[in-house]
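User: Can you help me understand a structure? I only have the sequence.
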Amino acid sequence: MSRRAARAGWRELADLPFAAALAGHPGPLAPAEGYDTARFDQLTLAGADAAGSRFLECAFTHVSFQDGQLRRAQFTDCWLADVRLTATGLAETGWTGTVISESALAGAEAFGARLRGVAFRQCKLDSVNFREAELTDVVFDRCLLRDVDFSGAGLTRVTFPGCTLTRTNLTRVRMDAVDLRGAELGLLIDPGALRGAIVTPAQLALMAPLLADSLGITVEDGGPGDTHGT
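Assistant: Let's start by predicting it. Here is the structure, written out as tokens:
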């Protein structure tokens, strides 16, 4: 079974193909460490520093990171459920084949991160900085994205089913097959920002004023020679 097919069925901890191998880890975390089939459960990790660490087939359940540092950490085939990442450094992190479920990211710095084959399910992302990040084959499923900054990022085959995007910054974004259908869109854009996006006709109609404004187009009724109604 491929990683992508496996992730589609990862709805509970017991679904993980490595669930039986997981061993509880009491914390704390350390920088530049390797963690393999470790389960982190019911932990509050305030100020934790795991910069440059590698997490392979690990599970995080009911874990809270506050003011932590995970810069350049690597997460491969991991499971995160009911996790809180608040004011945590995620810059230049790598995420591959990972599921993040019913979790919250607030004030997290994830600029320059690399996400491939990642699924966010019913998550809340508030003021998360994804500037210059690269997202490939990423699903945001029924998520709330508020004040999330994707400016300068590359998005390839990214989907947003059932999501609400509020003040989501897509300026200077490079898109390829980004599917916005099924999402409620509240965007900040610039000319060309949505090139490569897939939207519904209804979404396009709603975005028309925003697109016109980004292109410097003034839309007014009538014209110099319009005598209608006189």
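Now, to help you interpret it: The first strand starts at residue 23 and ends at 24. The chain has a mean pLDDT of 90. Let me know which part you'd like to focus on.
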